[in-house]
Amino acid sequence: MSSSPWWRQAAVYQVYLRSFADGNGDGTGDIAGLRSRLPYIRDLGVDALWVNPWYVSPLHDGGYDVVDYRNIDPRFGTLDEAVAMIDEARNLGLEVMVDLVPNHTSSEHPWFREALASPPGSNPRSRYHFRTGRGPDGDTPPNDWRSVFGGEAWSRAPDGEWYLHLFDVTQPDLNWESPEVRAEFRQILRFWLERRASGFRVDVAHGLGKDPMFPDLGHIDELLTSHGGVNHPYWDRPEIHDIFREWRTILDDYPGAVMVAEAWVDTWERLALYLRPGEFHQAFDFDFLMAPWEASHMKESIDRALSGAGAVGSVPTWVLSNHDVVRHVTRYGLPDGLDAREWLLDGDRSLLDLELGSRRARAAALLMLALPGSVYLYQGEELGLAEVDDLPLEILDDPVWKRSGQKLKGRDGCRVPIPWTIGGQSLGFGVDGSWLPQPAGWGGQSVEAQDGVDGSTLGLYRSALHHRREHLLGDEILEWLDLGEEAIAFRRGSGILVVVNFGNDPIDLPAGELLLANAELVEGRLSSDSTAWIVERT
Ligand code: NOJ
User: Fold this and answer.
1) How far apart are CA 428 and CA 424, in angstroms?
2) Which of 33, 120, 307, 444 has its CA 20 to 30 A from that of 536?
């Protein structure tokens, strides 16, 4: 084991609380449910968990619309339960990261209510971005900025001023030029650190700065706006790094505390800025998540990450799925180049090859878990769950569905409650129903169905996490090997060889003892869409 900080090569399990385990039987996952399942997370072999927002919220955007950053929504539990959960997790050897949502509050936050009740130009309004509209009556938005969820990024207050919301209309953007906003978040950080949180996943870190001139973008991007480029009026602006440096000094008062950036930026050069000494410890590498399943693309993406992070003395943070993207079993089962988010609505279902997607997903997990750096696993990926692609339109909860003008179904399909048991009400998620329906047949992929079963995806994740701890964390060295164009292969410093076959034909493996593979070898050869870990013969 290495003596480097715990987070540099940590495996972190993402708990989407609403859909993890329901302790009180109301159909919504909660802290009680999570507490009862902590041993499951520990036994997987991860180092930490990250809990999506659990704060008081009307849940217009799954809790990313916060009313009180220092208290828990009653549907999830109480503050005492949250603190007890953190203590219990830490006693099991698990660090706990909480979600920090600094770009916007809920429109029901006391600050925003106060802002609406106060006149234009007043101090309460200065905590947000209020502007007068354009046109003779001011009834045209101040500029052409678009909400990430679709539609205009401005809505009108009753007195005629407009307020900015880069996400839903119920998520007004905070003004990070306001000293009060800065002070408030410094205190929120300390509030959770004092309650033994190990750190923060920082939501929309790349969005905190806004060009004070509020210039037009000059073009309307379709649905999802672009995330960077230099001098973008709201994404990835240079001034935001001061905020992160300030936060880092607070975290440094708490040994082992970590922050991870959710920063959708255009290049690794830009992402590396967040990882400079004195800023974030980790930043999700979404380039890897989005890379098509193809040897040269994957290899280039890994190379970019290693050199990008390495240039600032950091390591990449790998991720294949989370609560915002189509689960990778489904992505890898669709033809390259097809936008899985668009396909969800009315795409041709015959294009989806779930067997292929599952196989590739297992191979991708073994690839990711063998790379130097930290990894984040999204609940259910260890069960091999696919996106639920047939949720009825009338029950969709994600604001993306409405705001996109019903062009995108949104993210509910990756947020369906986890199957714990083969049968029973809501498959062991709770004692009654679940807030989103689970598909027929999901019991066959439940924890109960896979536990202790040879060849199961759950078993594969457990073994991989175990071997990763045992063999791969001693250093951060990766050395590429050449096994032809259809494969990527590398040696980890510890003498573990990792081979991924992206081609159609089986390939020969280097000499050594097979430690792990996602599929049986065929006459000693590694078949298509498979990864093997081999102990090198010396
Ligand atoms: C990113 C979060 O992961 C996502 O779920 C949320 O909708 C947006 N940020 C807005 O907070």
Assistant:
1) 6
2) 307
- Structural domain boundaries, residue 255: 6-104+179-458
Q: What is the pLDDT of residues 156-187, one digit of tens each?
A: 999 999 999 999 999 999 999 999 999 999 99
Q: Are strands 496-501 and 487-492 parallel, antiparallel or unpaired?
A: antiparallel
Pocket test residue of 18, 54, 61 for ligand 1, highest count of atoms within 8 A of CB: 61
Whole-angstrom distance, CA of residue 329 vs CA of residue 351: 13
pLDDT tens-digit map of 19-28? 999 999 999 9
* Distance from Cα 136 to the centre of ligand 1, integer Å: 35
Closest C-alpha residue for ligand 1 atom 5: 324
CATH number, domain containing residue 354: 3.20.20.80
Residues 504 and 424 placed together within one structural domain of the fold: no
Ligand 1 centroid from CA 186, angstroms: 21
Ligand 1 atom with the smallest distance to the CA of 167 is 10
Same domain, 280 and 333: yes
CATH of residue 514's domain is 2.60.40.1180
The whole-model pTM stands at 0.97
Q: Is 292 helix (H, G, I), strand (E, B) or coil?
A: coil
Which H/E stretch holds residue 99? strand 95-100
124 domain-assigned: no
> What residue ranges line ligand 1, CB within 6 angstroms?
61-62, 64, 101, 167, 203-204, 262, 323-324
Q: Separation of 519 CA from ligand 1 center, angstroms?
A: 35
Answer positive or negative: Cα dihedral of 205, 206, 210, 216: negative
Same domain, 290 and 422: yes
198-218 pLDDT, tens digit each: 999 999 999 999 999 999 988
